[in-house]
Amino acid sequence: ATPTALLVGTGRGAQLGVLIKGPQILESTRRVDTIVLDKTGTVTTGRMKLVQVVPASGEDTAALLRLAGALEDASEHPIAAAVAAAARDQLPPGAALPTVSSFGNSQGQGVFGVVDGRAVAAGRGRWLAEQWSAPLPPELLEAVTAAEAQGRTAVAVAVDGAARGVLVVSDTVKATSPAAVAALRRLGLSPVLLTGDNPRAARSVAAQVGIETVIADVSPAGKLAAVADLQRQGHVVAMVGDGVNDAAALAQADLGIAMGTGTDVAIQASDLTLVRGDLYAAVDAIRLSRRTLATIK
Ligand code: ADP
Ligand code: MG
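Above: inputs. Below: predicted complex with magnesium ion.
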């Protein structure tokens, strides 16, 4: 009887838009008491928009956006898509973004490369200072603080080893996220918001969806460590994520849940995939597994 009940569970899962890697997965959902949620692309749409460009004194706004946009065009990060789209939008008709002759990506930090023969890096301010010896001058630091105070994310841009401006991007919470978080609580799960983004943007999103526990400013390795810490405290942890930066944490979690709209690496690292890319599907998945287990017993 057991295998049949499990198969019914997985079949119904497919109907609900939940892909389950194997029937044995359902077992691990039973004791889950904590659910860790990635912010960008999981709780939020991840469809970011560029809302402001702050050039350093003497820098040209259009030129800065063109260099950063060309570089970000090669990255699959949601921030990158916003910057590249905005850069393309401001081009004259028929013009293309400048050529990128070398490209590198530092996970959870930013991107770097050579654009039009110039060394360009775009990402976290601290990373520019530490990795590229391009600390932000006071007026750019102020722009970063102001953006983050509004729950936004600031991308600092360095050209030829000096900070030349800040690009501000803004994201929105998915319409179903607040209801999904409330339903997860009703299932007895404590939600935790986990992000590589700045604490102010994280707090703003957490407040919008009703989450109190926030872990921000963490690297991909830090995401894994955060999940492992919760497990050491005796929690059984589910994690929902979508990015390359979530893969290690998803694999570490007792139940890894990937957004179907996310990256292949995240999907491969997970036990379940939510086809719709909607957090509410995680609620359906946990309900379904519990019901299926009840049938077996
Ligand atoms: P999240 O945990 O919210 O999905 P990430 O770990 O992917 O965020 O990124 C953490 C931070 O690193 C971002 O908020 C951003 O500041 C910076 N970052 C990462 N990738 C890029 C990129 N391609 N361009 C600019 N900044 C980036
Ligand atoms: Mg993400």
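The longest strand covers residues 162-170.
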